[in-house]
Protein 1
Amino acid sequence: MRTAISSLTLLEPRSLREALVMLRDEGPLTPLAGCTDVYVNFNFGTLPQKRFLNLWPLEPLRKIGMRGGVLSIGALATYALLIASTLVRRRLPILAAASREIGGAQIQNRGTIGGNVANASPAGDTLPVLAAAEAVLVLRSASAVRRVPFRSFYPAYRSTVMRPDELLVSIEIPPVAGRQWFRKVGTRAAQAISKVVMAAVRAPEPRIALGSVAPTVLRAVRTERALASGASIEEARRILMEEIQPIDDLRSTAAYRRQVCGNLLERFWKETA
Ligand SMILES: Cc1cc2nc3c(=O)[nH]c(=O)nc-3n(C[C@H](O)[C@H](O)[C@H](O)COP(=O)(O)OP(=O)(O)OC[C@H]3O[C@@H](n4cnc5c(N)ncnc54)[C@H](O)[C@@H]3O)c2cc1C
């Protein structure tokens, strides 16, 4: 069986510190969180890596709590935990909404927010939420911690600025003022990868983020600026069409995605008025 892990190496750290030392001294290692993305690649036989680092038992990385005024979400928090968290529901309800629409119960119990972010798919459903929330990603190595603004994390399609000796340990969400809005459009209501996903905040300076319409998650900054300065929604829609770069792929067409993006923008504006 192609997925037999016995022919592979799996390191089992007992603490974050041990995990970071293993990454430094015994790398390169591929971190495993819930394995819901990694296992798909095992199955397809498209995973070249042979040496893995199991993060799943590292309980402290699942913590969701407040640090000063900032909501801190451990990278290993599963969708089930995010949905159940009163802090998340109160401070960032669009993250709970996105989590509810990811996979089914099995994926929600295993899939982690850190895995969604580190996997760097432009279709990851939590990514537009984190972009609209102006999240900060906390990356740790054995010797240092650095905080990377979410907008600087993805330099190109399916790549991140994370180094091989670093782990994503938590995600910080500063207070978000304004009404939050989230919508995922897929082939069906559950177990579907997004054709288009949008998260937005209605504030004097609105924030609009989209997934599956560009090589990386997109903040529609020109559209945001137009709306902030009083442009009509029709004008904002026209600008949004210039900002997005959707493609035809097996899930949808560029033309359909364009139409849906424009419709979602209008719905966001109307429903949060
Ligand atoms: C049936 C099915 C349905 C799905 N539905 C959806 C959906 O609706 N929406 C959606 O967005 N996704 C969906 N997914 C994809 C997947 O479940 C999510 O992306 C999930 O959040 C991945 O998390 P994980 O913990 O399983 O990551 P893993 O598979 O363990 O890891 C994914 C990648 O991230 C890296 N990584 C993980 N954690 C860390 C860390 N802390 N630090 C550094 N690197 C790390 C790994 O090395 C790997 O490269 C689906 C997958 C399946 C199989």
Note: The mean pLDDT is 95.
Protein 2
Amino acid sequence: MSALFSPIKLAGLELPNRIVVAPMCQYSADDGCANDWHLMHLGMLANSGAALVVVEATHVERHGRITHGCMGLYSDDNEAALARVVSSARRAGTAKFGIQLAHAARKASSQRPWEGGRALTPEQDAWPTMAASPIAYGENWHTPREITEDDMARIRQAFVTAAERSLRIGFDAIELHMAHGYLAHGFMSPVSNKRTDQYGGSFENRLRFPLSIAKAVRAVVPRHVPLGARITGSDWRADGLTADDGVAIAKTLKAEGLDFICVSSGGVTADTRTPTTPGYNVPIAARVKKEAGIVTRTVGMITEPAQAEAIIANGEADQVSLARAFLDDPHWGWHAAKALNAEVARPVQYARAGPKLWAPAAAKA
Ligand SMILES: Cc1cc2nc3c(=O)[nH]c(=O)nc-3n(C[C@H](O)[C@H](O)[C@H](O)COP(=O)(O)O)c2cc1C
């Protein structure tokens, strides 16, 4: 019996296996609106064998987008466009869909990766950014202005409104982006938060604004819809967040009523280097799962079925999330099922690519 292909329940959501497609920005939206690229991309991943596909970082404010091509849920047009794409992908595929809600803060106003991935120039229609403290993400990045309490109230409400839009679209789960140096992580980390008011300084103070977002969103997301967060479990630097902080953040978010945590790491400054070894976040996730006692997902250099199986079987995480492996092999979940001798859902149109196809090869082996 495969542990990876065993069911799990997140709040009211039943998932047939533990495989999740990680959120992946496509930098291809039109003023935040999903289009035919997203229909193709999400339609493909809907039949990947993963029980859950998390839609890319979707920004709650227009100027909270990373790039001009980032997805948003800040307008009625955005909502209608994403509703079309998700309902089509859902009709064509077997996966459930989650969404990641985000605000890029000091990493906003940047070029798409294939245009350089640096700060936009004025000619490229750069816009002013804001963050916990007026410190640039790195050399030649925009210096943000410090977020005020009025900004906080507006951004918090934007998260709530985007969550309400997500529910109307019919998303099965909502994930708050609290990792990778964006808005919430920027407040949480002592590297990027140098405030002297009640939103900076102590661990409790640095968490105050992100927690207020979690609380406000939880208040509008019904209990049966899983709400969670992706966190940075380590800043990978001596003056940053450590795995101990990751555990403490998870505990605090659990106390706010969140249902799951996805443990990622890194991204606090442009020059921070995140490990690239297989499963580099797994040890942090294992601690979060054990010590915070919350459904824990992890991500980062998980590429092999046996590796994913071991993470779940050893109790190090409850779900594994894969990003690049699914771009490389959009049927990764099917191939993992084959490797682990497990069942996976396929659309009827593709049923003939199932076990009967492999049986002759297996018999020969
Ligand atoms: C093209 C691309 C886009 C990404 N966009 C997001 C995103 O929108 N939100 C997020 O939290 N992480 C994002 N990531 C990070 C991935 O979700 C994942 O954490 C990272 O790639 C490590 O997992 P992997 O080794 O399985 O690729 C992105 C990664 C890639 C490759």
Note: The chain has a mean pLDDT of 97.
